[in-house]
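Form 7-S
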Amino acid sequence: MAHGRIAARIASIAPSATLAVSNKANQLKAAGEPVIGFGAGEPDFPTPDYIVEAAVAACRDPKNHKYTATGGLPELREAIAVKTLRDSGYNVTANQVVVTNGGKHAVFNSIAALVDEGDEVLIPAPYWTTYPEPVRIAGGVPVEVPTTIQSGFRVAVDQLEAARTPNTKALIFVSPSNPTGAVYPKEEIEAIAHWALANGVWVITDEIYEHLTYDGVQFHSMPTLVPEIADTCIVLNGVAKTYAMTGWRVGWVIAPPDVAKALDNLQSHQTSNVDNIAQRAALAAVSGDLTAVAAMKVAFDRRRLVMHKLLDAIVGVECLVPEGAFYAFPSFEGLLGRELGGRTIGSTLELADIVLEQAKVAFVPGEAFGAPGYARFSFAMGDDDMTEGLTRLADLLAQVR
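Output:
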């Protein structure tokens, strides 16, 4: 058997499309091009001062200069348990919490802990680009379950049941959704939980956008609605979106105690503890109130409505009003097969390339999210840039023939 230079599982990983778009846009900007990028999935606000000050103080304390417990500082794990009860009504203990190096680490380790060779993981599409890759790395099989703009980008129980096989181990569930902005209502979450329970399917539920909902739409945590699922449910969360802390790299997993212990053991061989300064900052964040996110929500809400209005007004584009997170996910299917600037628009991948080249506007094509024909636009950006970028897009797409 021939051996490749790079292990096959690693060589087959698709690069993060969202980071790729941001990188390409940044390269053009560095070359002096007036690029406006809609790709970044992070708040455009600084981390609140009280969190930064906690980190500054932590730097000066020698106890933070040493190794600490792999699964997280005991006081942070306890604070996360308290915060979880406060924010989602889910009553957990500190020994169920494992602090990770950001949300991606939480996703990766949770899948690694559950998935054996050949296990299938159901992933409703559109999905966050990272979800399928750790499944493949673990030797599992990601099974995409498609949704559309017509279904509000929400998967139905009958679709999950049609996709289920004897090899189905888990479902990855996210509400509010990256990339679509969809938020599942209470009744649909309950139905999915009961289906998972009845069929012995684990649920990995990503709640990182829990505080970003609009128009009175409510976030609901699955294990709070259906407590019986707690023994086969893993909750993912972190400080990145709520507290504008994407660069601090602190996430966490809430899992049944035996799974949390396995995750702690895995992490002990991967990274050991998460950076102590970042953990101290996260402790200040989760122990504080939600004033910062409330202020961000006001700006996000305003931009959300402006973005939806401008996108939906473009001929050939259809856009749902986002109910959560900070993304719009318009359909460009009405433009496919038509001509723009002497080129046929064969896909949203090609459209993204044309738009970046001709309008100097960057967005992430739907192919990255398992949803060809669509695209993700982040409204976590300045109002002026957002309006200017969408106006350039509209002016260019007015030339489609």
